[in-house]
Amino acid sequence: MMQQIDNYKQEMTAFEATTAEAAEAFRIKYLGTKGIVKAVMGEIKNVPNDQKKAFGQILNEFKQFAEARYEVLKESTVNGQPSTVNSIDISLPGTPVAIGTRHPLSIVRNQIVSIFKRLGFAVAEGPEIEDDWHNFGAMNLPEDHPARDMQDTFYINQHPAWLLRTHTSSVQARVMEAQRPPIRVICPGRVYRNETISARAHCFFHQIEGLYIDENVSFADLKQTLYFFVQEMFGKEVKVRFRPSYFPFTEPSAEMDISCLICGGSGCTVCKHTGWVEILGSGMVHPKVLQNFDIDPEKYTGFAFGMGVERVCQLKYRINDLRLYSQNDVRFLRQFTGAV
Ligand SMILES: [Zn+2]
């Protein structure tokens, strides 16, 4: 019934009258003794008692709408103006537009990007379908490296040399190919691994990698840059520690931990009672990588780092199941209403 009333209203709004006869035809059709308004009002007898009051109000409003429209049409036949001019009430409030929310990964990515932008890093992007050279070869990943294993990487059947990038280091490769130092970029983007989907692993996730190459870039620069980042991201009280690690594209390499935000370092289940949680990998760019792009390692040095956006998001919002990010469950997503 409500739908029908709306339809009638639209019909009435669309009704045009340039002559008195046309306006009269409108009156007979809608407001006459056998008119539509009367017929609709007769429906009240079929409405349950407890809804009669609410429906009565709707009917009254419908009748007033028809009468007002008739007045407008009558008027327009006198002064010869098209009736539609008078029928638009610009003082009415507009139809509300539902405002969505940003995805938590977008919120966190934007925060990370904005922190590094303030340090002078530019944003670089590249293709998600990559060739073997940009994804592996150029990054000093030898042929027999486990990351090249078919288990981990999605290759493309028709073009065995093409693959879905396994990290955004491929974007670093493309930047080093196209630019000369000084280079200072961050590379946010989606990456793919052939993993079984679980709470802790997914076949795609998001990374932000960073690369800074110039003369006299040292490990102290790396540490201070990343320390500034975590302080901006998690607060001034956060502590960091570096653990020696191995990556083919950096030498020396280090994993960076931050003090556990939940227990403050005293030990809890999130930090597995160590007081520290892992946040990113980093290191000084391997001379071999620089040589691959004709950048002289005797003159230039650089550092690189990479982090998972999901990981930072997990620490910030305590989201422990990776699958939540891509299930499109609005009950999950709505919790981020109002977040910039
Ligand atoms: Zn803890």
TrEMBL record:
Superkingdom of origin: Bacteria
Localization annotation: Cytoplasm
InterPro entries, per the entry: aa-tRNA-synth_II, aa-tRNA-synth_II/BPL/LPL, Phe-tRNA-synth_IIc_asu, Phe-tRNA_ligase_II_N, Phe_tRNA_ligase_alpha1_bac, Phenylalanyl-tRNA_Synthase, tRNA-bd_arm
PROSITE patterns: AA_TRNA_LIGASE_II
Subunit structure and binding partners: Tetramer of two alpha and two beta subunits.
Family: Belongs to the class-II aminoacyl-tRNA synthetase family. Phe-tRNA synthetase alpha subunit type 1 subfamily.
Protein name per the record: Phenylalanine--tRNA ligase alpha subunit
Species for this entry: Ilyomonas limi
